[in-house]
């Protein structure tokens, strides 16, 4: 089935791979959005001829308007532009590939239009999962995950007509570049070492989250929201080879798994074509050349970000928004070279201690928790 896409965040890793899938599989592109990457946005616009291109940054949008003056492509800027791309009538599917809580409002805008959401922005469900899932149900918007682990679970659940038969979701974790290291080793980690992921090529924020294992914590919360599962029925296992992307255990003891090469094109494509499967650009997996598959326990005491995320998963309310906001701020500081690797977890914990948690939050409560968490992190390093 051919889809017409609006890709929010087309210059990032997921956005660029979505365009690769669109090119190979023949999906239309109605809108693309970037923050400041005007050169790439121009090239993408010339190749895919969308109706709308958005640069969130105003100056970049002005530049893009000049660059695309010879075309009839509309160029918009700011949050309004992002929301217009999310709600564009021509698009039936919105790929939410923006990093961070910034993806929340556009995702809701797309849901309100009843579009299929190819969800690549995990922070949306981490911060406001209950609200987002309830809104999607109300508006009849399908949410299909792009995150490889959640796509694996989604695929394993096809044909399961009674969710009561699901005993456990098992999320795999590569363990990142520092698996097996001691807290002392971690205290000396540099930005460059943290940005070298062993298996996946991804954007900077998620690569750091993978190194701290915060990514796995966020994915744990994402899985709770997507599949309405309590925390005690989700397990994380470290699987260094990144071949088994996640698993579902059923009441009778059967465990189904999805295997594949570490190539995001497959989960992206499945989110677009589900329930159908088509040929695509993903690299096939050759079982005969796979290394032995291993599974081990993660250590949330050494990887404190994971421990904090699991505590917030149990606590609920705005705690997950505080966790996420503090983490976004702390990771930005780490990438700027202003704090050490272990300071990320230390600052997130500090924000969780300082910002009060509200239960049953509104969207405004969630944004306020996010802001308060960021303030707590910035105040702690001033
Ligand atoms: Mg993932």
Characterization of this structure:
The chain has a 7-stranded parallel β-sheet with strand order 4-3-2-1-5-6-7, with helices on both faces. It has helices at 13-25, 38-48, 58-67, 78-86, 104-112, 122-139, 148-156, 183-186, 191-194, 204-212, 214-226, 265-273, 304-315, 319-335, 341-354, 363-381; strands spanning 4-8, 28-34, 52-55, 74-77, 93-96, 116-119, 143-145, 166-173, 234-238, 244-250, 255-259. It is 47% helix and 15% strand. The longest helix is centred in the last third of the chain and has 19 residues, at 363-381. The protein is built from 16 helices and 11 strands. It is an alpha/beta fold and 382 residues long. It starts with a strand and ends with a helix. Helix 14 (319-335) packs parallel to helix 16 (363-381). It is globular and about 55 Å long. The chain binds magnesium ion. Magnesium ion is lined by residues 147-149, 219.
- Average predicted confidence as pLDDT: 97
Q: Please tell me what the overall shape is.
A: globular
What count of helical segments does DSSP give? 16
Name every ligand kind in the structure: magnesium ion
Please render the helix and strand layout as text.
Layout: E1 4-8, H1 13-25, E2 28-34, H2 38-48, E3 52-55, H3 58-67, E4 74-77, H4 78-86, E5 93-96, H5 104-112, E6 116-119, H6 122-139, E7 143-145, H7 148-156, E8 166-173, H8 183-186, H9 191-194, H10 204-212, H11 214-226, E9 234-238, E10 244-250, E11 255-259, H12 265-273, H13 304-315, H14 319-335, H15 341-354, H16 363-381
Parallel strand pairs: 1-2, 1-5, 2-3, 3-4, 5-6, 6-7, 8-9
Antiparallel strand pairs: 8-10, 10-11
Bound molecules: magnesium ion (MG).
Magnesium ion is lined by residues 147-149, 219.
